[in-house]
Amino acid sequence: MSNPDQMVMGTEAFDCGIQKRLVYAGKYPIEYHDGTKVYFHFKIIEPNSGVVMDDSKKINEKKPMELIIGKKFKIETWEKCIRTMWLNEVARFSVVKELLYDFPIAAKQLRDYYAKICESKHHKEETHRHHCCGFNIMEHGVGYEDLDILLKSPKNLDFIFEIVKVEQPGEYKKDPWSLTEEEKIKQLPILKENGNNLFKEKKFEEACKQYEEALGYLEQLMVKEKPNDVEWNQWNEIKIPILLNYCLCKFNLGEFYLCLEHLNTILEYQPNNTKALYRRAKVNASIWNLSEARNDFKRCAELDPTLKNDILNQLNQLDKLEALQYRKEAEKFKGKLFS
Prior knowledge:
The protein is about 50% helix and about 15% strand. The protein is an alpha+beta fold. The longest helix has 26 residues, at about 310-335.
């Protein structure tokens, strides 16, 4: 095992300006492969002043940073550094400024990430962050004063990493962003079935999460295709039944306007989809769009005669609701009109 006080890595190790010094020796060596998931804490230090710019433990000790080897982590030098480390090792890396020209942009994304997941007060004074295109960043900055300074005048920086946990491929559920296209496609029927089973158990919120994940994958697949081309339409055919199930969950959770939005989208592509028409009718009835509800129910009966009795019952219910509402309104204004 290396001496913690020894400089164990010089600039020649990466053919560029990165130096490593052990702070605490690790317990076990790690076999790094493409797909190895590393959980680690970090500190970012300005070496001349000793100012700690960011400290993940102070932001949220229970939420270490995650990196998947081979997935083009936003800060390339970090992956290079971490590949040299053992489990539970703590090491300090000094990196020359020539390798850090893009660092302020990545650091902004890290801060935004932590602010979102843990509602941290870190850099609270900078909540007016800019969201600029790349060619405008030099003019507008990234929205954090210290990072804006680095963007204009890059400096050498030190990074302290602590390896908390390591998982090899197959030992963890992959994050959606890290899945290949083939893996996303394989997940679609699994997620749909999971959502259906949860719906049957009336676990509507949990079912929604399964459907949402499947719909997210489909959006990623569809964005690569031209709308209404053959491939795009094939994905849309898979998407619509999942979206219908998602709407049914949201209906049971009382989120009527979200349902209406999605059902309108479905009916743009499939105007004769009886499930979508029937569910939109139910949604419209729930938000007192009674005329629209009647139209959709009647259209359902035209498209599917087997629904005739059910539709008649639904229309009778609408008539009763409307009559009840009319009586309430009449009673409310009784004696007040023309007085």
